[in-house]
Fold:
Amino acid sequence: VLALLLSPALTFLIFFPKILCKILNDRSEQNPPGPFWRYSIFAGLSNTASQLLIALDILLIGILLQNPIDVTHYKYISLLPFSLAIIPNIVLTTDFVRLTKAITDREFIDAYIRNYLLVFVFVTVLIWTACLLFTNEILLFFGGDFPALKTEFYLLLAGISSVLLIRGLFGNLLSASGLSQLNFWISIAAIGLNLILNILLIPRYGIFGAALTTAITMWITSLSSVFLFYHYRKKVSGSF
Structure:
């Protein structure tokens, strides 16, 4: 924890005075305008909130069930599903600048959405096929008692499927449209929903309740990003 905290803190302390001095003294057009800082702050907060959302289940399982074994079980069965989120991130990080430049070109964006969905429907089907065929082998890798948690594993896989198919895509499209604040508010709403559902379901259903909560929350946030992108698209396109 200290290493993770001190590394960026020391970097900040060393370089911030130089950067601040340059910003204050440089009045050229290259100096980032106010909306750039607003966008960056919300993008950073959105990423932080998303990370908190992933950690919240494990935290609440520990608090509500008071059983370290349940915490360990949930952490391990969620390892593979949550790791799959890196796949759309790789693609969309690579394409993000291109998407930002072309965000007002509806024909290009619509074609990109269609092509992305075609590819990731195939990827998602492939992942599900592999996981269904080799569920026991995957879960046995963590221990002999993990195959009993197939249902929870499938629920987490169902939740992450929404990220593969739509949340990753439309979340990045919102950011490319300059609407990073919407991603932040989606994440904040998801944290609230996750907290409420976990408090209701974990005491009654254990880690099954946590997995069900995660799947529900992921699908609601994913569909929210789709709705908000199309809701604001006309307004954003007209402002460029």
In short: DSSP finds ten helices and no strands in the chain. Residues 109 and 115 are 10 Å apart (CA to CA). The mean pLDDT is 87. The radius of gyration is 20 Å.
